Amino acid sequence: MNKGKINPLEVFAVRRVTFCPSYFESVNLKTRYNLSDAITHWIEDNTSGRYYVGKSVSLNDQNSLEACTRCAFEKESEMSYFMLACPHLKYS
Predict the structure, then answer these.
(1) 39 — phi, psi (to 5°)?
(2) In the beta sheet, which residues pair with residue 55?
(3) Which of 28, 39, 61, 86 is least enclosed by beta carbons within 10 angstroms?
(4) pTM of the full predicted structure?
(5) Beta strands across the sheet bearing 25-30
(6) Domain coordinates of the chain in residue numbers?
(7) Quick one: pLDDT band at residue 13, thresholds 50, 70, 90?
(8) What is the pLDDT of residues 65-92, one digit of tens each?
(9) pLDDT by residue (tens digit) across 26-39?
(10) Backbone phi, psi, residue 83, to 5°
(11) Contact by Cβ (8 Å): 38, 4
């Protein structure tokens, strides 16, 4: 997104967080093979803020627990952009 500009979060390796803070905007996605790696690469190339991608559990339509991939962003605008523009979400 910001090609040629230095992102301080990248320099100090704090852009991707290891846990999902409660104030991040998040979405749960059905887990597919290699989905989290593909999403992580897309986020790194197209956004500039802090984010989280990791495994989680959620309730499915039958009210049973199901493994999922959680994606969360500190900036609401980046969450909106991710949901609209990420090609990996097209078939989920």
Answers:
(1) -65, -40
(2) 69
(3) 61
(4) 0.87
(5) 25-30, 65-73, 51-59
(6) 24-85
(7) confident
(8) 999 999 999 999 999 999 999 998 886 5
(9) 999 998 888 899 99
(10) -65, -30
(11) no
CB 43 within 8 A of CB 83: no
Dihedral sign computed on CA atoms, order 6, 86, 40, 71? positive
CA 86 to chain centroid, in Å, comes to 10
Cα separation, 52 vs 70, whole angstroms: 8
What DSSP assignment string belongs to 6-55? PPHHHHTT-SB-SS--TTSEEEEEE--TTHHHHHHHHHHHH--S-EEEEE
Run of H or E including 77: helix 76-85
